[in-house]
Amino acid sequence: MIAKPKGTYDLIGLDAKLYNYIYNVVQGYMDNYNYEFIRTPIFEASELFHRGVGETTDIVTKETYDFIDRGERNLTLRPEGTAGVVRSVIENKLYGNQNGPLKYYYFGTMYRYERPQAGRYREFSQMGVEVFNANDPMIDAEVISLGYNLLKELGIEKFTVHLNTLGDLTTRQNYTAALKKYLKPHLAELCPDCQKRYETNPLRIIDCKADKDNDVLKNVPKISDYLTDESKALFTKLKELLTILDIDYEIDERIVRGLDYYDYNVWEYVTDDANISLGGGGRYNNLVKTLDGPDMPAVGFAFGIDRVITELKNILGSQEFTNNVDVYIMSVNDEEKMQALRIAQDLRLNNVMTEINSNNLSLKSQFKMADSLKAKFLVILNSDDLQKGLVNIKDNVTKEEVKIDEGEIVDWILGNI
Ligand code: AMP
What we know:
With about 425 residues, the chain is α+β, with helices and mostly antiparallel strands. It folds into two domains: about 15-170 and about 230-315, BirA Bifunctional Protein, domain 2, CATH 3.30.930.10; about 325-415, Rossmann fold (3-Layer(aba) Sandwich). It is built from 15 helices and 16 strands. The strands form three sheets. The protein has an eight-stranded mixed beta sheet with strand order 1-5-6-11-10-9-7-8. A five-stranded mixed beta sheet has the order 13-12-14-15-16, with helices on both faces. Helix 1 crosses helix 11 (about 305-315) and helix 5 runs parallel beside helix 9. The mean pLDDT is about 90. The site of adenosine monophosphate has 17 residues, from strand 6, strand 10, strand 11 and helix 11.
């Protein structure tokens, strides 16, 4: 037997059901907010992620799936969704004549060579939104609240938005200098990764998982003390808007996010009990320019679908999440089976979820099968009745039975489910 590659999983059973459920809810939801669906390739030129996500980020230094194709091109399986969407906006000149914001959402698999563990896979799914040509804090508030309301709509209630601002370039430069000065005498006390980050990406030290209980990190300077007046005013405005929208948020200065492109607002959706990050995002005003596009501010977030599925499963507990069949059609001989297939097609074309006996089950087994599918109605066919153009319908809950004209079956079922 050939096993699946390490860090991957088959989407089956309840997980597959929940995946489809999330997918369907997301689609409807994005229409309400007027976001357009976009799909970009699963592999892109490696350079896109090196320049986009950042040379010194964990994702690019340790986690990309890089390969050279048969035409000697350097390609990478996408580790995240934003860089590809930005590339597409630039390459297709989607910004064209737009005055207002360009709003997109995506849904798809991402690839990171991470050490597999609970909630961390090498192939996983994300859904995300990206809004371009948008500088007003109203858009940050819209994007943050969209993710918040979407999680609620999906059935997740107990989480909070952890919000921070990284401010503008001056803020980050001043803060980085202060941070480095503070950390310098403590370098030996940090994990080996953070010792490297000290030179390459010092901000990342703040949200290091390995060092999270390290006393050195508990007393780091606060970025809020280094915000320029403009950065502070923008953040104050955003907080006001989130309050108007009734979004549960808390300021969390440890949120810096793992990718290089963020500036100003960054946030994560974190579960209250287990402190799990379901997703996060931020503003990235310079990324489009960095990737050779126009100077176009943008903001976005991504959810990990797998983590949302796990959270939904925790909430559902042993509660079932099944698609109950509306009608099960019972048949034994060939004539009955042919009619069953035809009646099933009529019902299915009228949006009635219908199942038939396609496995030569005995009548007794068909009753059992109908019960296990939680069929609301049984259509019981027998040759004698069929010859008279009649069918029997049994309510599988009340056990009442009626005999009706075969031609009325769709209307009868539609009127009774
Ligand atoms: P990021 O793109 O790193 O900001 O991650 C956004 C969200 O994607 C996280 O909050 C997780 O829910 C999810 N995620 C990131 N990496 C993985 C992974 N290796 N496996 C499963 N989910 C992931």
